[in-house]
Structures are given as structure tokens and as C-alpha cells.
Here is the input.
Amino acid sequence: MKIFKYTLLLATLLFISCSEDDNTDYVNGIAAPTNVTAKVSISQDNTGVVNITPLAEGATNYTVDFGDGSAISDLIKPGQSIAHTYAEGSYDVIVTAIGLNDKKTATTQNIEVSFNSPENLVVTIENDAAVSKQVNVTADADFALAYKVYFGETEGEEPIETTIGETISYTYQEAGTYTIKIVAMSAAIATTDYEEEFVVTAIVQPLNSAATPPSRNPEDVISIYSAAYEDVAGTNYFPDWGQGGQGSGWSEFSLNGDTMLQYINLSYQGIALADGTSVDVSQMEYLHLDVWTAGDITSLETSLINNASGTTTEAPVSSSLTAGEWTTIEIPLSDYTDQGLTVSEIFQLKFVGEPWATGTVFIDNIYFYKAPSNVPEGLVGTWKLAQEAGSLGVGPNPGDISWFNCDADCVDLRACYYDDTYIFGSDGSFTNNLGAESWIEGWQGGSDSCGVPVAPYDGSAAATYTYNEAAGEVTINGTGAYIGLAKANNQGELPNVAVPSSITYKVSFTDINTIEVYVEAGSGVFWQYKLVREGAVTSPVTGTWKLAEEAGALGVGPNPGDISWFNCDADCVDLRACYYDDTYVFGADGSFTNNLGAESWIEGWQGGSDSCGAPVAPYDGSAAATYVYDAATGTVTINGTGAYIGLAKANNQGELPNVAVPSSITYTATFIDANTMSVYVEAGSGVFWQYKLVRI
Here is the structure.
């Protein structure tokens, strides 16, 4: 019989959304403790004394029901142990973890107290599949409660101990053969031991690809070797300048279909562009490459070789490498030009390994690049989430945030998050500005509350963006840079996917100062954000206006301010009530609308009888119109056939039907106050139609 068993009594995870009433107190929203277990050790002296150390995530206290009918323990603080004396037998111990808000999670753990020495010891020793030179040991035995492992790398080492059935991992400094000893322990003085000569191996090639390079405009990158961009044609990745005679070699290594360069026993290796080919990288800013080594090469020297006017010059830059993982190298081209190198005709690259001719490197994504150019102006500026219900949400389709959306109480609770800004620079740079605090979720080590930003999602990323206006897509490039929520990206949600180096979002403008953004974070999961431009200047004409319902608000005369030829008096205003309720809507997005309702004043030239009637096209409000307000000249121009202010007939050429129907009309506008505007148009020489508008 195995002596260590787990039975989960309670492991309920609660999803607390901002739409619930208790969001005004974030403590109530903290989930119950998780991953509840206990580390158990026993005295090997036939006394039956067992030490129990409760463990969990999110616990502030514990209790232990010893399972033998004795009283439940007092509160136990995290990190503390409790000793209990058992008679020989099998016991179901209940460990209860208590959170800050008194929510509880319990687990049952079976322990068997036996004064027999362990029997039927089964040991598994394996090299870790992902971590170089790491060995994983698991031991199980009847009557055993714990075991310890001597890994045999140093003399006099302290063994590592854990509960029977659990796994112990250890990373060696060097690969090789080691004597590993396992000691299984019960409550008896006698132990059961096992020894094995085990060969520890090193991982000598990458198990995963380098990060995918970000999206870039073609004019912003010159690629030598990368699947993300178009490479310079005809490049030779092993010209063999004599290195083959030193035992150095080359191959193209494929990892699940992703190819990369592999240089073996690297002394120095070259890359040569096609004969007669060179690239001018003087307008680029960086050389990028990703390098993986098992650790037998500690640094890589990268040289650029130029061939200006037939004279060959070169300059090296050395970069340290991290063993067992991809090292991303970003070399400013100024590191070369500061050495006097001209970079207008680069035709070769050279790599030198340190130590010389002893190790292997894998290299991918070799390209030159610069900050994005030709940045569309629309996104340039500082944006933040709209401080309103529904500006943050998630659902099964764009526009559907039924799964979760942040309501008004949630917005108040997350004030530290709603003041975060997203800055799109005119130079293609992108910055997350989070301030001293933001909303830190559990996967970041937070407690779903305001807290100090956590790297790399703390605004420290040196990020850029590209905006494809036609496709309605913006790509944020830079590990840790994001819009909306850091966890939501194109692969899924962190921490369940790899940390991305770029994220592409769909973006659409509601108006010039409002954008709707979403990202499909895994199939059918759409995180959605409404962003507003910070510090946007709104035109003073923005809003809904109508003619003032007073005598003289409509008139015509030989000069501005003179309506002696005709003006609509009080009786006229009453008679034309169907006209005085017409509105002129100036949108913040630059749109303009005539809203006439079911009736307006229809004059004879329109086929009416100078009376109320159904609006007549194109002067019926159906025009897809825009406007431009020029504060310097005091003019507002209405663009769109059939769109107008005041009277449809009056335009810059004269009066309809005596002139052609215009596609735009420019009016002179002055503000009497913020909500009152005087407007006129000279409809032919010396004919000034004049209107007094009020904001509603």
C-alpha cells in the first residue's frame, strides 16, 4: 500500500466580475486559496511523531484535522509546521487553507504511520526534456512517508527531501555520470536505500523557435535571413573562407518546420551576398539577430564588412550569450560607424565564436531595421480607455461583451487602470504609461487589485507600432507592450501561452477622437476596448444647433448685420414652426447632418407652395456630409451635395434654382457666446443671407 494519497475536497475557483455588487470592496473579490497541500516528514525513531507543513497559494492561515479523532489544530501561519504523535495506522489528514477574506479551500491527504521499514521501493530517474542537465527523481514505496536524494555532484552535500511520490529536480553544473542515492523513510529507524550510476545529459540544440519578428513596413527592414521578411536574394550562408579546414561546418537546422542557421565548431564563419550585390544600411538603425547556444560558446563577435569603391573594411561588435535559451541581440549601427566603418555597401557578415572553434551556435532572424516610417497620422497621440461602462469587455464576437464587461462600479474600482495611457508617437514609437499603479491580476502575481506594475508589462518596453489604415489593423511590437489588457494576445491569454513579442489588434474609428479596438485571444474569444484620445481639442461648433426661435434669426440684406430686405418676424416664426425645429448636427468626427424631421418649410423652387411639407431631395438630410471649421478665418465649410445651414437655396454662387447645385458651401461664422452663433453666406454679390443659431 502506498502511504501518500491526495483527495481534493474543495477546489472552487470563483470568477468575480466588476458587474457584481461587491466590487466596491476588492478584498471580497479575492479568490479562495489554491494548490493546497502539505509537506509531511516523520521521526525515524518509532515514536510516531509526524511534522506537517501546510502549503497553498493565497493563504494567510491554516488549520489541520489530524484524522485520528483529536482536536483540530489552532491557526498555523504560512511557513510554520505542526508536530503530532500518531499510533501506527492510516489517517486522512484534512488541511484547510484560509484566505484574507476568510474564504477556505481544503484538501485531504492520506498518511500512513508504520514502524516497518519501507518496502517495494520504485525509483524513476530521468533527464528533463526541456532543461539542460536537469535530472528529475521520483520515488514511491510501501510504508514510506518521505524520501531524500543525494545527487552526487559534491562531497558532503545536503540531501534534498520531499514527500514520497513527489518529484525532486536538480540541475548539474556539468553533464556526466553521477552516483545518485535515494533514501526512503518511514516511522521506523531502518530505511530503504537505492543507488544508481546515472548519465546526465545536456541539451545541445534549441527546443523552441526564436520569437517571431514584428510586422514592419518593407522600407523599414533589410533582411539577410528571416522567414518574417523578404531576404536579400542569392545570399550564401557558408562561403567557407577556409573554416572547413579547421573543422568548422554549417547546416540549416529545421525545428518543426522553422529553419535556422547552425554553425558547428565555430571559429569564424561568413555570410556573403550574391556576387556584385551589396546593401546600403546607412538609413537603418539596428542589426538584429537571435542566437542559441548550449553554453559551449560564451560570446559571439559579429562583424559587418563593407566594400565601398572596391576597398574592403570591417568592424566587429561582441555580444554575450545566455546558455540554453535564445539571446536576442540588438546592435546599434552606430556601434559600427563610431569605429569609422562605412555601411553604405555591406556585402558580407562574419561571426567569431568565443572560445575559438569549440562550440555550436544556432542563428535566426538576421536583419537590419529602423523605426517605422510613413506613420499614418490618425493614431498619433495619447489614448486611454473611456471611463464608462462597457469600454472594457469580452465576448464571443466583436461588439458582443456578454461574457464580461466592466460596469460603472468596476470603472470606479479600477481607477488606477483607467488612467493608463497608450501613446502612439509620430516616429512610430509606442509607450504604455501606467503611472505608479495599475490593475494587477492574479496571473501577474497580484490579487486583482491596484498595485505596482509588473515587468515586462510596466511600460518599460522599447516598443514600436505599425498601422495599416486600409486593413484597420495596428501591430504593437515589443515584449510587454499592449493595448487594453496585457494578458490578451493573438495566441490566447497569459499565462497559458508564450509571452508574445508583438500583438496585432483590429481598430476602427468611431470619430476622430474615439477608437474601438479588439483582439481575438484564441478562437472565438474577443477582448474589446473603447479608447478616447486624451487632450483632444473639440471644435467649438461641435454639437446640435437650430435657428433661434425669435424675430430676426433669419434674414437677408445688403451687408452682414443688415436684414432690411427680409427678416422672419414673430408671426413668421410661428408660421414656419416646421422649419424652426430643423437641426444642424456637427459631429466630433467631422460629420454634418441636416435633421429635418417629417416636415420642413418647402419653397416654390423646390416644387412646394411656401408652406410646411415633406423634405425634398437632395435637401432632405440624406447627404453623407462633412464639415471643416477654420477658427483663423472664422469660416465653416459644409461638404456634401444637399447639405446646408439656414436656407437650402443660398450658396456661394447665388440662389437656387438660378445657379448649379453646389457640392460644398462656405459660411462665415462668429460666436456671440459658446452656445450662440451668427452665420452668414454671401449668395451672389452683395446678397447676405444671415442666421442666428443656438446650441441645443
Q: What stands out?
A: The helical segments are 334-337, 408-413, 415-418, 570-575, 577-580. Confidence is low (pLDDT under 50) at residues 1-26. The chain is about 5% helix and 45% strand.
